Amino acid sequence: MRELRRYWAQFENSDIAKAYRGEVDKFERWVREVGTRLIALRVREAAERGNPVARDYPEEYAKGLIRRGQGKVLVNMFAAYLVQRGLATQYWLIKNKFVAGGESIATWLRLLRKLGL
Length: 117
Known about the structure:
This protein is mostly helical and 117 residues long. Helix content is 79%, strand content 0%. The chain has one domain (2-114). It has helices spanning 2-6, 8-12, 15-19, 21-48, 52-56, 58-69, 71-84, 90-95, 103-114. The longest helix has 28 residues, at 21-48.
């Protein structure tokens, strides 16, 4: 979670966070509750697919995932949060250029479903 906090300012300056300003505080609470489990599940899946770093060094893999994506990780998680809550659709977010593509949103949504959320 500390890694995610490092990029929170980038996230807050993104177009999607500005457009849904009223949801950012709720998203922050949601990330504290669900974020660690989501990232852990993503690491677990990478390990199951044969990624040796994810298998042998899961914490480092998670940090690297966040460092590589920086604010984009939070933007995509926020987009999935909005879709899950029924506040937007993937298509609408992509069409209005809030996110670059739907693949990352779909990944986070799939992980949310796996967690039963």
